[in-house]
Amino acid sequence: MIVYFTGTGNSRYCAELLAETLSDEIIDSRPFIKDGIAAELISEKPWVFVGPVYAWQMARVFVDFIRAGSFSGNRKAYFVITCGAGIGSAGAYMEALCKEKGFEYMGTHEAIMPENYVAMFPVPDEEKSRRIINVAAKRLEKRAELIKKGESLPAKKLGGKDKLLSGAVNKGFYKHYVKAKKFYTTDKCTSCGKCVKLCPLNNVSMENGSVKWGENCTHCMACICYCPAEAIEYGKASVGKRRYKCPEYK
Ligand SMILES: Cc1cc2nc3c(=O)[nH]c(=O)nc-3n(C[C@H](O)[C@H](O)[C@H](O)COP(=O)(O)O)c2cc1C
Predict the structure, then answer these.
(1) Ligand 1: which of 53, 81, 82, 241 to mutate, most ligand atoms within 8 Å of CB?
(2) Which residue's alpha carbon is at the smallest distance from atom 7 of ligand 1?
(3) Per-residue pLDDT tens for 141-179?
(4) Where are the beta strands (DSSP E) in the chain?
(5) Domains parsed from the chain with CATH numbers
(6) Is residue 153 within 8 Å of residue 146, measured between CB atoms?
(7) Rounded distance, CA 216 to CA 204, Å?
């Protein structure tokens, strides 16, 4: 079974490609997360968990979902982590998670997809995004062949920098940076409520027609990137920048 989390569609695209190639079921973790329900899932086929990297580790919100859930049946677990440039030593943390959950760790694939972190970086235009996705899709199809045969994914060679990024830098990033305080709406906001609906953590609400962010943000970028009026900004960092949505899902 393919289980995914996504903010802006990249991981959903990879999950769907795997589901098709492996003729397997696909499950979106976001409704469980939004409703605060621990998953109870059963699969005869290996588990494939697909999600974005946030500061060189699998998105914490998705790791928490896996940690809280029950996944019975097949004991093999593969991970596909989508990123803009690299995942550091995120695979080592997935291996540790497998020990905790009683899974047999089968490896982690680093899927380089378009950058979506508009609160920090510029994002590629649609043409460049499609080119990046095409390369990623070909690599992922090769990995799917290994999954089909029940083989392990090749391990990435790790350096000291990878360990530092996924370790101390990841911790500092969540502690100091992953906050919703800098989100605001401009006068382009039409109070349509799409951001409220899309937030996987129910952290966005509408009060008398104005959008408010709470304390429980994971920086998935869904609110800012899917706003139909491009009326959401993140401090000065997002102003004038293109928003990213996986071009497969408009
Ligand atoms: C909070 C946050 C942190 C990110 N950290 C990294 C990172 O450490 N390395 C990297 O290559 N990409 C990073 N990215 C880019 C995303 O991982 C990448 O674009 C991913 O494919 C987005 O997946 P999604 O569309 O399924 O949400 C980050 C994005 C966000 C929003």
Answers:
(1) 53
(2) 55
(3) 999 999 999 999 999 899 999 999 999 999 999 999 999
(4) 2-4, 26-28, 40-43, 47-52, 70-73, 76-83, 104-112, 183-185, 204-207, 210-213, 232-234
(5) 2-174 (3.40.50), 183-234 (3.30.70.20)
(6) yes
(7) 9
Which token pair is 158? 């790790």
Instruction: Look at residue 172 in the predicted model and tell me its pLDDT.
Output: 98
Atom of ligand 1 nearest to the CA of 218: 1
Average pLDDT over residues 193-219: 97
> Percent of the chain, pLDDT > 90?
98
Amino acid letter, residue 242:
R
pTM exceeding 0.85: yes
Mean pLDDT of 246-250: 83
Question: C-alpha 38: how far from its chain's center?
Answer: 18
Q: How confident is the model at residue 250 (pLDDT cuts 50, 70, 90)?
A: low
User: Is ligand 1 within 6 A of the CB of residue 84?
Assistant: yes
By three-state DSSP, how is residue 88 classified? coil
Query: Best substitution site from 115, 121, 232 to test ligand 1's pocket, by max atoms within 8 Å of Cβ?
Result: 115
Q: Which residue minimizes the CA distance to atom 8 of ligand 1? A: 55
Question: Pocket of ligand 1, candidates 2, 18, 54: which has the most ligand atoms within 8 Å of its Cβ, to mutate?
Answer: 54
CA–CA gap between residue 189 and residue 228 (Å, rounded): 9
* Ligand 1: nearest atom to the Cα of 112: 21
